[in-house]
Write a structure and sequence with these properties.
single chain; 381 residues; alpha+beta; 6-stranded antiparallel sheet; 6 strands; elongated
Length: 381
């Protein structure tokens, strides 16, 4: 792993020949031992060998080359610490210091990119899941404001409703997603509220009803309207702002020292963990809801068959019903039918011997939840 520096002398006189002694002095100060082209560096009690080269000075400019041959992660940490010492050394008095090649930042940016990819995908999954669960295919028309609508149509090069519904969420930048979630907006204008009140004032029976309607014109963010109380991530808005700044560093290949990398990764891991918990809760709502809807549809159909047939084949019907109810694992429901339900039609004499039902409630198919855990082995963990 390599780092290359350029040093520009602040006051340069072409008639003076400058020597590299001040550079050698800096190397002497940060090394344990030094020989021609090499020095030993102490990092956290361990000795690491560093290769170095110092160029002659030309036109007031001198170059320094450093290289470390340890593992990528260790080399990045060692060279990052040396870089911090060099850029804060006595050389600052006489030189402007710039970086020509920075393998340290390249390494930390590449490692961060993987986590950013996971974070952004999970974030879109959560937002898309909650909105579509509440609004279905109307999520776009109900939540996308006019300025973002124009940008999405421009990005997708289409005004086709189906394309916008399917692809808009996945084409928002992190900045657009942040603004989309947290910028307050009105669903109705104040003028529209006043018009409705004046035209329909008699429809509001109490002051409380009137105040509730007026409250609907209050600007609220999408997060408050749909996500608050469903997603428990403290101060998500400001954390997204921090993520955006780090993402810009990664996306545009800027300098990323080890300290920034460790903070960024911790922040990303905490956010991903909170989002994963919210997605797990959302998945429970989505898939258990489907199961219950299907079960109650069978209940309705079975009761209708029993009533319409005046209990002809009643046991077959209730066997079917019992098997469907056996599939319900969560949540548990208790059904208490009023006496009038049973008196609404004449009940025949029924032998209550359960053997007549001829079914085994234990012989049911049960869904099995498979938890997939992504195992990551980071060198810094």
């Amino acid at each position: 792993m390599e780092v290359k520096y350029a040093f520009f002398r602040k006051k340069y006189d072409n008639n003076i020949r400058y020597i590299s002694k001040e550079f050698e002095d800096v190397i002497d100060n940060i090394s344990i031992t030094k020989s021609i082209g090499f020095f030993e560096y102490n990092y956290n009690g361990n000795t690491t060998s560093i290769t170095y080269k110092i160029s002659n000075e030309k036109n007031g400019t001198r170059y320094l080359y450093l290289s470390c041959g340890d593992s990528a992660f260790k080399s990045a940490k060692v060279l990052d610490e040396i870089k911090r010492k060099i850029t804060t050394s006595e050389l600052r008095k006489n030189y402007f210091i710039s970086i020509l090649r920075d393998d340290v930042s390249q390494y930390f940016c590449e490692k961060s990119y993987v986590k950013f990819s996971v974070f952004e995908r999970r974030m879109r999954e959560l937002v898309f899941g909650i909105l579509t669960l509440d609004l279905g295919s109307d999520w776009y028309e109900e939540t996308i404001q006019s300025d973002l609508d124009e940008k999405m149509k421009e990005i997708l090069r289409s005004s086709n409703r189906s394309k916008l519904i399917q692809e808009a969420m996945h084409n928002m930048t992190l900045s657009q997603l942040e603004s989309y979630l947290f910028t307050p907006y009105r669903k109705v204008t104040c003028e529209e509220v006043v018009d409705v009140i004046l035209e329909s004032k008699d429809s509001f029976k109490t002051i409380d009803e009137l105040m509730i309607y007026i409250e609907s014109a209050k600007p609220q963010s999408l997060w408050v309207r749909f996500f608050q109380g469903k997603v428990e991530i403290d101060d998500l808005n400001s954390k997204l702002g921090e993520m955006r700044s780090y993402r810009n560093i990664v996306a545009h290949c800027k300098e990323m020292p080890y300290e920034s990398y460790t903070y960024c990764i911790k922040l990303l891991r905490d956010l991903i963990s909170g989002i994963d918990n919210a997605i797990a809760s959302l998945d429970t709502s989505i898939y258990k809801k489907v199961s219950l809807i299907e079960t109650f549809a069978v209940l309705s159909e079975t009761l209708s068959e029993a009533i319409n047939s005046r209990f002809d084949g009643v046991f077959a019907s209730f066997e079917k019903l019992a098997k469907e109810f056996a599939k319900i694992e969560f949540p548990k429901y208790k059904f208490d039918f009023p006496d009038t339900f049973y008196k609404s039609f004449e009940l025949p004499t029924v032998d209550t011997n359960l053997n007549m039902l001829n079914f085994d409630p234990e012989a049911t198919d049960k869904d099995s939840d498979i938890d997939e855990e992504e195992n990551e082995s980071d060198e810094d963990s």
